[in-house]
Design a protein that fits this description.
Elements (H helix, E strand, L loop, with lengths): L4 E6 L2 H11 L3 E8 L2 E7 L8 E6 L3 H12 L5 E4 L3 H10 L4 E8 L2 E7 L5 E6 L1
Parallel strand pairs: 1-4, 5-8
Antiparallel strand pairs: 2-3, 3-4, 6-7, 7-8
Protein name: YurT
InterPro entries: Glyas_Bleomycin-R_OHBP_Dase, Glyas_Fos-R_dOase_dom, VOC_core
Pfam family, one: Glyoxalase
Amino acid sequence: MKIIVTSIFVQDQDKALKFYTETLGFVKKHDVPVGEFRWITLVSPDDQDGTELLLEPNNHPAAKEYQQKIFAEGIPATMFGVTDIHQEYNRLVENGVKFTIEPTTMGELTLAVFDDTCGNLLQIVQK
């Protein structure tokens, strides 16, 4: 068994698609209409056959409440691995990304947390 798709709740699929592709650098794999929303998945440009990230609409009250509560508590919705966290941090800051935690070393890893502008905090980690 392996993880093939994981999802993240977003307030606006179009805004999220733009941020996750243009700012973060993910590649759109699927964009299929499904009722009033779309099945939009993204992949890493380095692993286009790897795990897909689904931009899931937060239109259900439970999803919206979950998203708002973890954001308010400062809990990242998901984590992305990077090779050089300082380089990635600088690239994202140059692209206007707002960090809540700058690169911080914790044991064997360094992490940073930022706002995805779509209702989530995201964490990048360098092991």
